[in-house]
Amino acid sequence: MTSRRDFFKFAGIAGGAVAAASVSKVAMAALPEPVIQTSAETSAPLVPNFGRPYNPVVTLNGWTLPWRMNQGVKEFHLVAEPVVREMAPGFSAHLWGYNGQSPGPTIEVVEGDRVRIYVTNKLPEHTSIHWHGQRLPNGMDGVAGLNQSAISPGKTFMYEFVARRPGTFMYHPHADEMTQMAMGMMGFWVTHPKAKNPLIDEVQRDFCFLLNAFDIDPGSYTPKIMTMLDFNLWSWNSRIFPGIDSLNVRLNDKVRIRVGNLTMTNHPIHLHGHEFLVTGTDGGPTPKSTRLYEVTTDVAVGQMRQIEFLADEEGDWAFHCHKSHHTMNAMGHDVPTLIGVDHRGMTQKIRNLIPDYMVMGERGMADMAEMEMPLPDNTAPMMTGQGPFGSVEMGGMFSVLKVRKDQKPGDYKDPGWFKHPEGTVAHEYTGPLQAPARFKSEGGQSMPLAETPKKQTVVKARKPTRHTEH
Ligand SMILES: [Cu+2]
To answer: Residue 350: which domain range?
Structure first.
């Protein structure tokens, strides 16, 4: 375990010397002991050993916060603090989060539970927590200035309410929100139903993660908090591919995946090989009559979506955001499109002058995944990930659903790559090739032109060098 003092070293991001706000030992003694996580691995589900039983969730590259029972109240202790988050192997970011990680731990309770959450502020500035989507007394809603005083550095506040409705929720600060969310402060919350609910099916696997985004210059460690749209790291639970763990399930498991969006844009989340139903939103379980089979569902800003499907196709199925820029890591911006331009030899000459100079390949971007580009320290390659057949050429919001016959019930370990049955992999055709036959049908224009243009115009698609919208 990393020493807690190590975290304070990085606390000078915005506030300098006030960073290591001290919390007195006496004051902490009455609180539930804060549990700190230093690893970015996916933790095993936290099976409750008291209270009402439920089927716990698995947080991708995250964990569930243990609690204590105090006279019928479930007590949790969140510590808002600077953290170092490994976003992918070899790439760490200096973020703010809770209990050692960004996002913070997932909180799991049961419908009807009385919940008390102590929030200790070890940030260099004030904070608060808003319990996104919950029914609660107005004074517990966490909007600093509106519903409560902000929690000053070094102070601990108490929130208490009954988890009134089952569903998928999030928590995040509602004080200097722009800074604190851009720095990674957020977490997941799941309220399990207290009894059989006609709209909530039992599942064998229940995964959850938050969509978040950061703007961290290659070679640096701290996000730029003023960025509104032009983020360069699109992450799931502050992890980027190939740092996002796969979702490992057993063949014919019923699977639920809960996704919350705390970025500044929408993310069409797409699953290969299966159709799913959206069984829940911010407002709770969806009425059955509204459920459609889909393979992509858009998760807008501030929304939560809960999808369910039967994992009845074995294999390694891609699961990702369908915005292609969101499956890229840093440095995807400001690279001119050079498809069709022969610049062989030129790159090396320029690199003699500008060592980090990099251009897009003349045949597309795939070249870049293979080119051994010199990377500055502490960044992730733009597109990477070695699969069984070569580079996956992905980054950002991308993972793999692994469906296996021999995955044990309750086992979340990575089973390795899928072994395809003989003759079921696309492969090169080596037989004779016919000359192409052109399609010769008449027509092609809905209306004849008044005048035939003298010169044919041919347009080449070119990505703008500076884009502001994803
Ligand atoms: Cu996206």
So the answer is: 346-378
Q: Total structural domains in the chain?
A: 3
Q: Which residue's structure tokens are 């320290």?
A: 377
Per residue in 53-89, pLDDT (tens digit) is 899 999 999 999 999 999 999 999 999 999 999 999 8
Residue 263: inside a domain? yes
Would you state the structure tokens that stand for residue 446, as one six-digit string?
Answer: 């809905």
Domain boundary among 198, 224, 241: 198
What the block records as the tokens of 198 is 């006609």
Those residues whose C-beta lies under 8 Å from the C-beta of residue 39, and which sit 6 or more positions away, are: none
* pTM for the whole structure: 0.82
Ligand 1 being an ion, which residues bring their Cβ within 5 A of it? 267, 321, 323, 326
Q: Which of 47, 45, 36 is nearest to 1 (CA)?
A: 36
| Residue 381 to residues 118, 242, 369, 428, Cα–Cα distance (Å) | 39, 10, 8, 29
Give yes or no: residues 64 and 180 share one domain. Answer: yes
Distance from Cα 389 to the centre of ligand 1, integer Å = 25
Smallest CA-to-CA distance from 380 within 279, 238, 173 is with: 238
